[in-house]
Amino acid sequence: MSPLARNALIVLALLLALAGFTSGSNLDTTPVALPPSLSHMTLIAHAGGGIPQGKYSNSKEGFASSVRRGYRLIETDISWTKNRQLVLLHDWDRRFRHYFRPHSLAKRLFPGFYNRPSKNELLLQTENAGQFMAIKMNMGLHQMDLPALLAFIRDHPDRRIVTDIKRDNIKALTKIAAMAGKLKNSFIPQIYEPDEYEPVRALGFKTIIFTAYRSRLDDRALIEFVKSHRLFALTVPARRVNADLVTTANRYNTPVFTHTLNTLKEAEAMASLGVRGIYTDFLVPPG
Fold first, then answer.
1. Is 211 buried (19+), middle (13-18) or exposed (0-12) by CB count in 10 A?
2. Euclidean distance between CA atoms 246 and 250, whole angstroms
3. Strands (E), the chain
4. pTM of the full structure
């Protein structure tokens, strides 16, 4: 079998596994430890870390669980409020509706909104971080804003935060840099386009991940960027992973990470292609 055919079969198997894992309403939230054979893989806790209540919570409980499970890197989603404050939230539509009880204004203006998808993801966006923090979160969870995240970092200086900022990345990182002070080194910003690299470096962030899930750059353009920029990692969605991309990035001392994987079969398939890092909800560090 040719290397190209082998690579295609591996990726096909991974995609089928992903489809099987994410279909259906019953989510398996049981943590699975990596075996010693995969101990070289870097694990990044996704969206604060998976917990029994689910994924994408970006909650205090998620962060605490990630610490207990031994993650050193924790990725978190960061969104804007209407008055341009930062809160830890994946989006103001599906995840907000899932994790937060309907506040009275939204319930009155948009009856039934919490039971159906929205065409406007900002309908329920709170005016400020104070309003966001005042809404009761479902399932006994507790939300976080930027001050809460900085408090977490002070309490856990050996952990690093990987940012996934949903809009206006540079403006958000500018605000984070100003508020974080000496804690800035605990952040690993993700950038989404090549022209974000220098502004982020200028803000004082020295450890940067280029993540390609929003980018239209093809593999050749990604490699050209890797060749001329120092990166902590190049992150690509699982469907884009291929042996040529991984091998070439490694040649330029840039490991390839991928997301979001939650089974050992998926992790083993990616490891066989040379991937060195995984964003995950429920795979946990060995030991």
1. buried
2. 6
3. 32-33, 42-45, 73-80, 86-87, 160-165, 187-188, 190-191, 209-211, 233-237, 256-259, 277-280, 283-284
4. 0.88
Read off the tokens for 186: 């605990």
The first and second tokens of residue 220, run together, are: 């050749």
Q: Is 266 helix (H, G, I), strand (E, B) or coil?
A: helix
- Tell me the three-class secondary structure of 78-90, residue by residue: EEECCCCCEECCC
Chain Cα centroid distance, residue 127: 25
In 3D, which of 49, 148, 136 has the Cα closest to residue 100?
136
- Nearest of 61, 28, 23 to residue 45 by alpha carbon: 61
Taking only the tens place, the pLDDT of each residue in 169-222 is 999 999 999 999 999 999 999 999 999 999 999 999 999 999 999 999 999 999
Helix (H, G, I), strand (E, B) or coil at 59: coil
Average pLDDT of the residues in 234-256: 98
Q: Give yes or no for a contact between 128 and 85, defined as CB atoms under 8 angstroms apart.
A: yes
Strand partners, 73: 44, 160
Q: Where are the domains of the chain?
A: 3-90+141-284
CB 231 within 8 A of CB 257: no
- What was the pLDDT predicted at 271? 98
Q: How far apart are CA 160 and CA 186, in angstroms?
A: 5
End-to-end alpha carbon distance in the chain: 37
Residue of higher predicted confidence among 17 and 272 = 272
Q: Please, which residues have CB within 8 angstroms of residue 42's CB and are 6 or more apart in sequence?
A: 73, 233, 255, 257, 276, 277, 278
80 closest CA partner among 137, 136, 146: 146
CATH topology of domain 3-90+141-284: TIM Barrel (3.20.20)
